[in-house]
Amino acid sequence: MGVDVQEVGRPRVPLWRFALLAAFALSSAVAALATIVPSTGAELLLAKAAVLEPVAIRLEEALLPAPTTYVREDRLQRGDTFNGLLARLAIGEADTGQLLRQRSLQLLRPGTVVTAEVRAGGDRDGELVWLAFLCGRDTAVRIERVGQSLVASEQRAQIETRGVLKSAVIRSSLFAAADTAGIPDAVAIQLTDVFGSDIDFHRELRQGDRFSVLYEMHSVDGRPLRSGRVLAAEFSNQGRKYRALRFADNYYAPDGKNMRKALLRSPLELSRVSSGFGMRMHPLHKAWRAHQGVDYAAPAGTRVRSVGDGVVEFAGRQGGYGNLVIVRHDSRISTFYAHLKALGRGIRSGARVAQGDTVGLVGQTGWATGPHLHYEFRVAGAARNPLSVPLPAGTPVARHDMDAFHARAQELAAQLDLLANGQVAALE
Ligand SMILES: [Zn+2]
Q: Among 33, 146, 195, 348, which has the minimal tally of Cβ within 10 Å of its Cβ?
């Protein structure tokens, strides 16, 4: 495809990686470019490759790539084993053995976030490309593949933070799209949080939905260490477009309205595990009309969260509902969470809950043939379809902050527009 590797590549990085990155950019409608401070060679190449020969790509082929590498981030938990962590990062056994012999792995402490790029599919499935983490305040550990061996380096270094702009089209699931675009899970999960009042990520995602996101990437020497906060994002869901801009620790729409509404659309958080169940393109839930509620298929034990602040009105066993929690949000609105395996800590009649608090775990108590959450949304006692009920909005940008917000919003929106009008459009 005519990419001159010599011209833009850094000589230390093997050729196949550039070929891979270039193939990525062309094959998955991904464009990445650094936006706040100068970018690495690889990203320049991505941006460049994305506009090189866009016309020659057939869309059907371009949009259905098997991702060839994944970027995963995970935290070493207290009581965790290295084996457990490496397995969660999807690193194969051959490399796990080699990694466990690396002295620098001993520098890992509970709470440390480890980022890894790992190959997927084919003979080299599970092969580590690189792994990095920060120990102490300014020492970065990086373990990189050199031929058959993994070579560790420690670097006393300054952490740089820059913005990374990426875009992806949803074909099967949010996480698959993020993988394809090389967007870390932590960023995908932040997106579900930012847009969680507008989109029910379990039921409303459709093939062809797309998103662009500007997020922080902390790096050392231009090499990624871990992702940071989402600064701006756009999500197109079933033709409706939502934009969110970070300002003063909150996310707002371009007009200054708070993205966070009084209630979340979904009582289930989206995760890699739950998305395999609930986020299918043809979800397993029953129609709302049939039984006055919504059923979310999810593995037993999945956390169920209160969709808004409120007071627990009922917590306990109730006939066909099995273990049931009812939360009253205001004088009119209440929500029901049924078939729970167990109730959340401190969940009893009269207890206060905040939005996102755990009310219980998915189970199959009462009249349930398999583990799922039965969720009801009631207004003045009558069941309503939670997807179609307008939700009260959170606090907008304060009047005296409006000028500062607009200035910042313009800056961030301009970045998103780059993708909206640029490389991605060119691919279509
Ligand atoms: Zn149900």
A: 146
- Fold identical between 5-65+160-261+409-427 and 69-156? yes
Distance 290 CA to ligand 1 centre (A): 9
Contacts of 74 (CB under 8 A, 6+ apart): 85, 88, 89, 113, 114
Instruction: Please tell me the distance from the alpha carbon of residue 163 to that of residue 165, in angstroms, as a whole number.
Output: 7
Q: Per residue in 158-207, pLDDT tens? A: 788 888 899 999 988 899 899 888 899 899 999 999 999 999 888 888 88
Ligand 1 centre from 375 Cα, in Å? Answer: 7
Strands 210-220 and 223-237: antiparallel
Buried b (16+ CB within 10 A) or exposed e, 392-421: eebebbeeeeeeebeebbeebbebbebbbe
Report the C-alpha gap between 382 and 388 in whole angstroms: 14
Write the burial class of residue 280 (CB in 10 Å: 0-12 exposed, 13-18 middle, 19+ buried). middle
- Cα(76) to ligand 1 centroid in Å equals 37
| 0.85 surpassed by pTM | no
The alpha carbon of 382 and the centre of ligand 1 are apart by a number of angstroms equal to: 16
**Hunting for tokens 């905040």 — which residue is that?**
354
Q: How far is the CA of 189 from the centre of ligand 1 (A)?
A: 26
H/E stretch holding 426? helix 423-427
First to last CA, the chain: 17
Q: How far is CA 2 from the centre of its chain?
A: 33
- Please, which residues have CB less than 5 A from ligand 1, an ion? 293, 295, 374
| CATH topology for the 272-384 domain | Glucose Permease (Domain IIA) (2.70.70)
For 311, residues 6+ apart whose C-beta sits below 8 A from its C-beta are 327, 328, 350, 351, 352, 353
CA of 296 to the centre of ligand 1 (A): 8
- DSSP-assigned letters across all residues of 111-151: T-EEEEEEE-SSTTTT-EEEEEEEETTTEEEEEEEETTEEE
Instruction: Report H helices in 132-245.
Output: 174-181, 185-194
- Domain 5-65+160-261+409-427 coded CATH 3.10.450.350: yes
What residue ranges do the domains of the chain occupy? 5-65+160-261+409-427, 69-156, 272-384
pLDDT tens-digit series, residues 49-91: 222 222 223 333 334 445 578 888 888 888 888 999 999 898 9
Contact 350, 311 (CB under 8 A): yes
